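I'd like us to work through together how a protein chain folds, taking it slowly. To get us started, please write out a protein record for me. Go ahead whenever you are ready, and we will take it from there:
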Amino acid sequence: MDEIEQRRREHLARLQKNHASDYKERFDKGKSLDQTRREKLSDTISADWNAKQKAKAAAIAPDHGKPLPEGWRDAHWKTLQAMAAEYAGVQTKNKDESLTVLESYEAKLAETPAE
């Protein structure tokens, strides 16, 4: 092997060894001030919107007393999950949980006097 090839291989080995640190030095400057401000504003707006949506759902869901549609027990399990979230305000993970929540919601509706 001649001297040029030996130098080339050493140089490539040195580049590979130092690549990660060199890349971080050159390009990883962190977040800019504008990007940090934008993310903070976005998080604040999202948190406010989420709080309003939760308050609206809490105000509407259990106290509203909207009756369940006919044949709701025969619906697909994903539909039951959506119904549990809409009517009872509860997020469920499977069909059994959804049925339990909707049945308890239906029982609450039967207990409360009609307005």
DSSP finds four helices and no strands in the chain. The helical segments are 3-27, 33-64, 77-88, 95-111.
